[in-house]
């Protein structure tokens, strides 16, 4: 059985198990309802199942490229048109540096917030959570 078929056939039991696990992640789960505990898990399972198809992955990359291409070209065109010629190189490199720095800061901020998330619960437990652990004890 393919992974995608298993996920689609077992979707509800997987979600019920995730919900039961998420309830154990206090204090974040204390006031959450079922929708909050499931936290888009159903949609994530659907994407994982769909991503099993190579054609879908290629199509998603194509759509992303089609959407990004004109926007990036427009940004370069405006920078080229508006920046003084003597500062053009400096402007392009500074803009790239700011973009990368913003990405790094956003990643650091997301990491700081993630420790308060229900999905961060396994990380706080060192990756071990009873039936959810794939580790075995040494003899």
Following the backbone from N to C, one meets helices and strands in this order, namely HHHHHHH
- Helical residue percent band: 55-70%
The strand count comes to 0
Q: For the residues shown, what is the average pLDDT?
A: 75
| Percent of residues in beta strands | under 5%
What separation lies between the terminal Cα atoms?
Answer: 33 Å
The structure class reads: mainly alpha
Short description:
With 139 residues, the protein is an all-alpha fold. The chain has helices at 3-9, 11-23, 34-38, 41-51, 54-82, 88-114, 121-124.
Could you outline the blueprint of secondary structure elements for this entry?
Elements: H1 3-9, H2 11-23, H3 34-38, H4 41-51, H5 54-82, H6 88-114, H7 121-124
Helix pairs in contact: 1-4
Q: What are the defining features of this structure?
A:
139 residues, mainly alpha, 7 helices
């Amino acid at each position: 059985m393919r992974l995608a078929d298993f996920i689609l056939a077992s979707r509800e039991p997987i979600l019920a198990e995730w919900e039961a696990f998420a309830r154990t992640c206090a204090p974040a789960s204390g006031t959450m309802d079922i929708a909050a505990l499931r936290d888009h898990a159903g949609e994530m399972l659907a994407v994982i199942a769909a991503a099993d198809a190579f054609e879908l992955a290629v199509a998603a990359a194509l759509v992303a490229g089609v959407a990004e291409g004109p926007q990036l070209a427009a940004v370069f065109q405006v920078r080229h048109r508006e920046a003084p010629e003597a500062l053009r190189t400096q402007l392009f490199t500074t803009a790239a540096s700011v973009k990368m720095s913003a990405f790094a800061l956003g990643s650091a901020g997301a990491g700081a917030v993630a420790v308060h998330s229900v999905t961060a619960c396994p990380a706080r437990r060192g990756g071990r959570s009873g039936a959810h652990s794939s580790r075995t004890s040494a003899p």
